[in-house]
Design brief:
The protein has 2 helices and 8 strands. The protein is mainly beta and about 180 residues long. The longest helix is centred in the first third of the chain and has 19 residues. The chain is elongated.
């Protein structure tokens, strides 16, 4: 599963970069703005019809109001893993509460947010939106930050399209590398 691959990648990267990072007196300095790119995955699982997996790229913009509170927006563009003619474009936006969001070192957070996306298949477009619960963790160095974001989405709009009593689960994840200002 993509989440396992992403989790493994972040653990390996964190261990590698933590050995390179050197502690210094500027470790208490905060940086509020981070901009970067990432890989983005979306899994929509229907009990009766099975799982649909989408993957692609995202842009990430994070503004840390303090070390405990931040806001993130991620526009993304995805393709269906099995049928490349099905595409999704959209964004998610979350407010995070956690630790280490503006300073160097380990960061972890939870949050709430919104998502809005359009699924395109040939000439048919469907719009989906809702709320999501978010969580994540990562590590920030002086100039760069690496983080894993996971979102659990509300599925009301997805269920309308399913046209049956099928239970649907939707989870997004992204591995993001950002430059810190």
């Amino acid at each position: 599963m993509k989440i396992t691959l992403i989790t493994s990648s972040i653990i390996i990267a964190a261990l590698t970069f933590s050995n390179i990072a050197a502690a210094n007196d500027s470790s208490k300095k905060t940086k509020q703005l981070s901009v970067g790119i990432g890989s983005y995955a979306l899994m929509i699982d229907q009990d009766k019809l099975g799982e649909e997996d989408f993957s692609g790229n995202s842009l990430s913009i994070t503004y840390a109001f303090s070390d405990k509170m931040a806001m993130n927006i991620q526009p993304y563009s995805l393709e269906h893993d099995d049928a490349s003619d099905i595409e999704i474009s959209g964004f998610d936006m979350s407010v995070y509460y956690g630790t280490g969001l503006a300073s160097k070192g380990f960061k972890a957070y939870i949050g709430v947010g919104l998502y809005n996306e359009t699924r395109k298949f040939e000439s048919v477009e469907e719009d989906f939106s809702g709320v999501q619960l978010s969580t994540g963790f990562g590590y920030s160095w002086n100039k760069i930050s690496l983080g894993l974001h996971i979102g659990i989405r509300s599925t009301d709009d997805y269920e309308e399209l399913a046209n049956n009593d099928d239970k649907i689960t939707a989870i997004s994840s992204s591995l993001v590398l950002e430059y810190r200002f």
